[in-house]
Amino acid sequence: MAKKPENLSFEQSLSELETIVAHLEQGEVSLDDALKQFERGINLVRQSQTKLEQAQQKVSILLNENDAELAPFTVEAE
């Protein structure tokens, strides 16, 4: 049984979505199976979008936490 979308990492969700799209693009799937896979894909997309929004909020909070301006990163020559 497939894991629930909320229990997958972002990368796992993306990988499964790629597999679903490739399978559906082959066109050799029954209508019922195609609908089930489509539904699974929609759930994966929604969970992935939620995870991305949460990550964006965390980054925003971290950047605003110190309210300091960030300096460009430069690599020192060795």
Automatic annotation (TrEMBL):
One BP term from GO: DNA catabolic process
InterPro entries attached to this UniProt entry: Exonuc_VII_S, Exonuc_VII_ssu_sf
Keyword Nuclease attributed: yes
Molecular functions per Gene Ontology: exodeoxyribonuclease VII activity
Recorded GO CC terms: cytosol; exodeoxyribonuclease VII complex
Assembly and oligomerization: Heterooligomer composed of large and small subunits.
Name this polypeptide is given: Exodeoxyribonuclease 7 small subunit
Organism of derivation: Shewanella algicola
Gene field: xseB
